[in-house]
Automatic annotation (TrEMBL):
Keyword ATP-binding: yes
Official protein name in the record: Lipoyl-binding domain-containing protein
UniProt-listed GO biological process terms: fatty acid biosynthetic process
Species for this entry: Ridgeia piscesae (Tubeworm)
PROSITE patterns: BC (PS50979), BIOTIN (PS00188), BIOTINYL_LIPOYL (PS50968)
Amino acid sequence: MVIALKELSIRGDFRTTVEYLVKLLETEKFQTNTINTGWLDHLISEKVQTFQSSLERLSDGGLLLALDGSSYTTYMREEVSSYRIVIGNKTCVFEKENDPTALRAPSTGKLINFLVEDGGHVFTGDVYAEIEVMKMVMELKVEENGCVHYVKRPGVSLDAGCIIAHLKLDDPSRVQRVSTE
C-alpha cells in the first residue's frame, strides 16, 4: 500500500491525506502495532523545529526558499477558511480563525437579496441572504444567534471570502480564536 500511495500523483485545488498516510504507514510503531492514543501527538511534537532561511520572490508568485543548503519552491493560496501552502511537493493547510461575526461569501457570485432586514435578529441555521453562483441560487445561513448588520448591497459582485455582513452575537464567547501553542 505504501508503494501505491507513493506513486499516486494528484494535482488540483483540493487536498489529500496521501503524504500523511505514507508517513504513518512507514513508522515502526505502526508496522509492529505498538501504538497508543498518544502516538500521533508524540509524532507531531517531534517535528517542531525552527530554522534560519532566505527567500527570493519568483515571477510566478511563488517563493524560492533556501534552508540548510537546500532550495524549495513554495506557493501560498488563501482560501475562504484556510491558507494552503505548497513547499516542494508537500501541501500544508492552516485553518483561519472561526469568527461567526463575519458573514462571508463562500464563493464568487452576485448578491441577489437579503431575507432578513438590516439589524434583524436571526437564529442558528437561518437563511439571511441569497447569492447567485454559476446561474444557481445559493442560500447563506448564519452559524450563531444574533443581529445581522449588512455591509454590501443587493446586486453587487462578491469575491470568495468577502464580508457581506456582520453578526452581533447574542453570546460573544462563541468566537473561536486560533491557538498559537
